[in-house]
């Protein structure tokens, strides 16, 4: 089932080739490196695509990071045995190098009242699925698109009066996490340190939550790439039509 949201101005130029001597690459995970599926735990990256991804990280001297709404532990599991620098839960988790420690910018207790309200509310709407990422809560309606309004209403009621939280709407999801962080800020923070510092940022993503990073990278003179067809408008300057095109573009890196 397709769930889409729109943003800003669309352009459709094919992106330039990656220059591994100059670029720092930031990649979304779901919808960019792997196909979207009904069960978030059932995703899988093609072995050949993963080999190309690991090869690109080596060519970039490590200046490659996966930037996702998922937890870094989940990304590691899906990409095992490879490990990459990463920003998880939209930057609330951060690992600046593949073998580095995961930095946590917030604790799960921040969301305890919201967690309880959502759990109570969906008892009578069992086709909705709550994914608990500790520092973020995601209400999925991919298998029940007719319940989108209900999911959004439940989240709005559960977060009422909480100015310290931000609610984000993505592809068949509505998510809440502590305010003050998004994928754009995560990319900006990672660009301050080696091996990313001094390189030109490249960001590739498909979802509305990626627009923060796409906007930041474009404003910084980098390469901003939206994944998807014309139904997904974006601030990005460039476009790749689908996941297969993303992997082909990665494989062609010099």
Automatic annotation (TrEMBL):
CDD domains membership: HAD_TPP (cd01627)
Enzyme Commission number(s): 3.1.3.12
GO biological process: trehalose biosynthetic process
KW Hydrolase (keyword) present: yes
Keywords for this protein: Hydrolase, Magnesium, Metal-binding
InterPro entries: HAD-like_sf (IPR036412), HAD-SF_hydro_IIB (IPR006379), HAD_sf (IPR023214), OTSB-like (IPR044651), Trehalose_PPase (IPR003337)
Cofactor(s) needed for function: Mg(2+)
Catalysed reactions, as listed in the record: alpha,alpha-trehalose 6-phosphate + H2O = alpha,alpha-trehalose + phosphate
Pathway annotation from the record: Glycan biosynthesis; trehalose biosynthesis
Keyword Transit peptide among record annotations: no
Family annotation (Gene3D superfamilies): HAD superfamily/HAD-like, Trehalose-6-phosphate phosphatase related protein, domain 2
GO function term, MF aspect, one: metal ion binding
One Pfam family in the UniProt entry: Trehalose_PPase
UniProt record similarity statement: Belongs to the trehalose phosphatase family.
Protein's job: Removes the phosphate from trehalose 6-phosphate to produce free trehalose.
Designated name of the protein: Trehalose 6-phosphate phosphatase
């Amino acid at each position: 089932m397709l769930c889409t949201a729109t943003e800003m101005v669309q352009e459709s130029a094919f992106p330039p080739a990656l220059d591994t001597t100059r670029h720092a690459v930031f990649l979304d995970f779901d919808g960019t490196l792997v196909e979207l599926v009904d069960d978030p735990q059932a995703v899988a990256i093609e072995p050949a695509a993963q080999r190309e991804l690991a090869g690109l990280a080596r060519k970039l001297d490590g200046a490659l990071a996966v930037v996702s709404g998922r937890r870094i532990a989940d990304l590691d599991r899906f990409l095992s045995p490879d490990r990459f620098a990463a920003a998880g839960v939209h930057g609330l988790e951060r690992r600046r190098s593949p073998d580095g420690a995961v930095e946590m910018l917030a604790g799960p207790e921040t969301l305890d009242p919201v967690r309880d309200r959502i759990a109570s509310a969906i008892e009578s709407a069992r086709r909705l699925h709550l994914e608990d990422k500790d520092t973020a809560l995601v209400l999925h309606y991919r298998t029940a698109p007719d319940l989108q309004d209900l999911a959004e209403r439940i989240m709005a009621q559960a977060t009422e009066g909480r100015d310290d939280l931000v609610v984000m709407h993505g592809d068949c999801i509505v998510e809440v996490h502590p305010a003050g962080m998004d994928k754009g800020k995560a990319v900006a923070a990672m660009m301050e340190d080696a091996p990313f510092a001094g390189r030109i940022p490249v960001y590739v993503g498909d979802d509305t939550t990626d627009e923060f990073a796409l906007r930041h990278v474009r404003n910084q003179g980098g390469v901003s790439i939206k994944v998807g067809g014309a139904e997904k408008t974006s601030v990005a300057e460039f476009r790749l039509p689908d996941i297969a095109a993303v992997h082909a573009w990665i494989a062609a890196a010099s």
